[in-house]
Design brief:
Blueprint lengths: L4 E9 L2 E6 L2 E6 L11 E5 L2 E6 L1 H22 L1
Antiparallel strand pairs: 1-2, 1-4, 2-3, 4-5
């Protein structure tokens, strides 16, 4: 299964961006989204920013991830 995660763009250098999610920073390619700006939220998969999303989408995705994690913790404990 492939999964993209949402992250905020905190710096841009050419076609590379640094994105942050919950305090973790990663470098990603902007080759597919050259119009990306600082502060944008993007979906990241395999080192590429794939799609720009709004903050509500990020919040909804993080809630879903938390629910999944809770269900996994409950079933294994």
């Amino acid at each position: 299964m492939c999964l993209a995660y949402p992250a905020e763009v905190v710096s841009i250098e050419g076609m590379l961006a640094t994105v942050e999610l919950e305090g973790v920073r990663r470098r990603v390619s902007l080759m597919l989204l050259p119009e990306t700006k600082l502060g944008d939220y993007v979906l990241v998969h395999a080192g590429f920013a794939m799609q720009t999303v709004d903050r509500k989408t990020v919040d909804d995705m993080m809630s879903a991830f938390d629910e999944i994690d809770g269900a996994i913790q409950k079933s294994s404990g």
